[in-house]
Amino acid sequence: MPLKPPSEDAVAKAFSILMASLSEENGKKFILGDNNAYEFLPVPDLALNVDAVRLAKSCLVQKMDLCAARMQNLRNLASPIHQLPLDILAIILKGFPVWSPSKETTSLLDLLEVGRAWRDAILNLPQLWTAFPLEIPPKLAPLVLERSKNLPLTITCLPTHVRKYLDLEDNGELQERSQAINEIEEMQLLPGPLEVVLREADRWRTIDFTLSCGLYETVERLLEAPTPALEVLRVAVKYPAFARTMGPFALSPGSQLKELTLYRVCTSWSSPRFAGLITLNL
């Protein structure tokens, strides 16, 4: 059932109260209500009274908008999604990437704007921030590492241009594929995130890279960083189709790996870190 508006008399009284307050605050005599008194005002006073009426309106609207926003927030907090236990909410949020280059993909950074409860939960659950994409904007890199506390990290690399090329490889038009290839050949990883995450190499537990041959030098530097806690290593060169093999690279000393997946990548097999492999894909 639709709500009925307040009576005209009530609105007129509220208007008179607002204008009386404006008159008192400013030491001037403004019209006190919608009683057609303004028709007898001198022309020079009309502009000042117009400004006064607009100011009264903006103050009232601002106050009522604030009241409505607070009530809506309380209503949102009462919804079932906001009553979820923190551990259940963490499981749901774990399915979202920290950051995404695509506006079509929802990330944790987008979910921060859902509401205060979600924002507090996301910012205070370090397990949600353990995946570090190397393509992340430099200004966001320190935030991810800070929020992940001291938990083990998963370092990923699937540059946007490589992702686009793989999507177009089978079904894309020739012109689109050519454009994607040109973008890949000009691509470089930003130095900011690289330097930041290298300082945390002792926390890397998983490396998962899908890349182009143009990134060999940068990636080899990452793979040879001191990674004593590394357990899973996946590196695949997907562009170009007949790219030269990357490597060989040598892993630094550390615990034994559990999984190794290499595609067009070679390494030094003498490393004792490969002695306890459970999964091997070449």
Written account of the structure:
It is a single chain. The protein has 282 residues and is α/β, with parallel strands linked by helices. Helix 7 packs antiparallel against helix 8. It is elongated. The strands form two sheets. Strands 1-2-3-4-6-8 form a six-stranded parallel β-sheet, sandwiched between helices. Strands 5-7 form a two-stranded parallel ribbon. Strand 1, helix 6 and strand 2 form a beta-alpha-beta unit. About 3% of the residues have low confidence.
* Helicity level: 40-55%
- Say how many strands there are: 8
Class of secondary structure makeup:
alpha/beta
Q: Largest sheet, if any? A: 6 strands, parallel
Q: Output mean pLDDT.
A: 80
Q: What share of residues are in beta strands?
A: 5-15%
Rounded to the nearest angstrom, the radius of gyration is: 31 Å
Give the strand line-up of the largest sheet: 1-2-3-4-6-8
> What does the overall shape look like?
elongated
| Parts with pLDDT < 50 across at least 5 consecutive residues | 180-187
Helical stretch count? 10
The CA-CA distance between the termini, in Å, is 67 Å
| Order of helical and strand elements | HHHHHEHEHHHEHEEEEE
Give a topology summary:
Elements: H1 8-26, H2 43-77, H3 86-93, H4 108-111, H5 116-123, E1 131-133, H6 141-147, E2 153-157, H7 160-171, H8 174-185, H9 191-198, E3 204-212, H10 216-223, E4 232-239, E5 246-249, E6 259-263, E7 265-267, E8 279-281
Helix pairs in contact: 7-8
